[in-house]
Each structure stands twice: as C-alpha cells, then as structure tokens.
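Exercise 3.2. Students should predict the tertiary structure of the chain below and write it as structure tokens, then compare their answer with the key that follows.

Predict this chain's 3D structure.
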Amino acid sequence: MEGGKKSGRGILLTIGWLSVFLLTFNLMPPMLLFIPICIGVVIRRDYQGDKQGTAMIIFGILSGIVGWLLGMLVSNSLM
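Answer key:
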C-alpha cells in the first residue's frame, strides 16, 4: 500500500460489475440485488469514486429489475 492508499478498489469493482451482469441475465436471484448497491456505496464513500459508485448502484437496480422481468417472461413462455 503506497502512502496509505487502499488497494481493494479493483476487486470491489470487478465483483460489483460481475454481479450487475449476472443479475441482468437472471443468473443470480434478484434477492441478491444488494451486492452491487452495497459495493457502489463503499466505492463512493471509501474510495471517492462518485461516478463509478453511483453508476454501479443505478445499474444494479436496473439489472435486478430487468433480470426479474426476463425470468418471468421466460418462465411464462415455457408453460
């Protein structure tokens, strides 16, 4: 850690965006929607990444809704 700089930002961003992707394609239950939201809050607060944190929160919510609707559409079309 150089000069007291936190080094976990990269892994947080990777996990956050991966969870957004998985939520979009309903590969992760929408109940786990809190993962990108929590990581977005941590990025905004601890790492001063206001734009990245806000984007992760917004896309996390949107991908959870889209994934939920996609899951309903696919399950209804199979019946």
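Discussion points: The helical segments are 9-24, 34-46, 50-78. The chain has a mean pLDDT of 82.
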